[in-house]
Amino acid sequence: MKLNEIGASKEKLKKRKRICRGIGSGKGKTGGRGMKGQKSRTGVSINGFEGGQMPLHMRMPKHGFKSRSKTKKVVLKTDFLNYLLEKKIVKEKSSVKIEEILNLSKSGKKSFIKILLGKKLEKPISLETHAASKSVVEEFKRIGGDLTIIDFKKSLNQLTEKPKTETKKKNDLNKSSLSIEKKNSKSKIIQPKPEKTKKKMIENLVTNDSKVSKSKSSNKVVKPKDKSDK
């Protein structure tokens, strides 16, 4: 018999130590917490506090990051497909899409699925995956099933973001055009018609000529009379 072959019994091998149950127990009176102080009280989480100094866990340098472009890869074997057929979750000669496989395997929507060969397939089935090994492709051909490989889209958000930006630009352009039209409607410049302007010009010239003639008639030089004529 080896240590790894020993199976633990249903009951615990060692019972936990009961504290504060008399001096004879070894953990009586203070129960291993010492005399007084903040740490002997309940509801105190003082571990890691260094009296206001920057603690050690905050002084240590940061490392690593979570990549947004990281893809979760899920590997499924043909044993999983046989299990689905045995439990009649999937029918024989039925087509299983990638969305159904994601739900059945309990993997995320953005996970990359690859199928590897385990046990041989018992019944034919048509399946959609992102990737598959050569042995799996041969196995599907042997049993008379269909295996279609689909391109994996890394980020579904990028596809939805593009039309949003285009619609935003269009909305901005529409808003700007509406604002310009409103401004133009408020500040309309009424230009005079060309025929009226000509008439006014002629009238102004006539009035100016009449004024000049009047001024000339009024500005006559009157000569003084000589004394000798008297």
Describe the structure.
Helices cover 37% and strands 10% of the residues. It has helices at 56-59, 78-86, 98-104, 134-143, 156-186, 194-218; strands at 72-77, 95-96, 111-116, 126-129, 131-132, 146-149. A three-stranded parallel β-sheet has the order 1-3-5. It has a three-stranded parallel β-sheet with strand order 2-4-6. The chain is of the alpha/beta class. The radius of gyration is 49 Å and the shape is flat. The model is unreliable at 155-164 (pLDDT under 50). The longest helix is centred in the last third of the chain and has 31 residues, at 156-186. It has a domain at 72-149: Ribosomal Protein L15, Chain: K, domain 2. It has six helices and six strands.
Topology:
Layout (H helix, E strand, L loop, with lengths): L55 H4 L12 E6 H9 L8 E2 L1 H7 L6 E6 L9 E4 L1 E2 L1 H10 L2 E4 L6 H31 L7 H25 L12
Computed Rg: 49 Å
CATH class type of the domain at 72-149: Alpha Beta
What name does the CATH topology of the domain at 72-149 carry? Ribosomal Protein L15, Chain: K, domain 2
The helix-and-strand class reads alpha/beta
Shape: flat
Q: Can you write the helix and strand succession as a string?
A: HEHEHEEEHEHH
Proper CATH architecture of the domain at 72-149: Ribosomal Protein L15, Chain: K, domain 2
Number of helices: 6
Number of strands: 6
The largest beta-sheet arranges its strands as: 1-3-5
Q: Could you give the distance between the termini?
A: 173 Å
Largest sheet: 3 strands, parallel
Strand content: 5-15%
Uncertain regions spanning at least 5 consecutive residues: 155-164
Helix content: 25-40%
> Can you give the mean pLDDT?
77
